[in-house]
Hints:
transmembrane helix, mainly alpha, single chain, membrane
Amino acid sequence: MKKNFYLRSAIFVILLMHSVVSIFSGDVNNFGRLYLDTIGFSPFGLYLAWAVKLTHLFSVFLIWSDRWVKPVSVCNMVILILGIYWVHWQNGWYVVGGGTNGIEFNVLLICCFLQLIFTDYPSLQQEKRS
């Protein structure tokens, strides 16, 4: 069984749903044009939004297959930290309950990625010995 199987499974589902649903619903385009462009990223808001979603999408398969787990985790953590700063901070801590659209979910995902970063992977150990 893979290390962090349940953690990987949760990240797999979260990132897959977060990317695929917004791609097919068109929300990624709206986020790029209607939000990122208006807060100062114009004319690159749409491209930035797509870069984020594609990073999430490719991360799903790379993390699941034990490939480039640490760089992928760092990339996603950067995205989540910037998401906290640009999108969620003004809404407080809670995603639901005590508020809406807050930072708690991003903080949890950052901790999940930190766990992946600080886990030793057998495939990396074998490569180091060679």
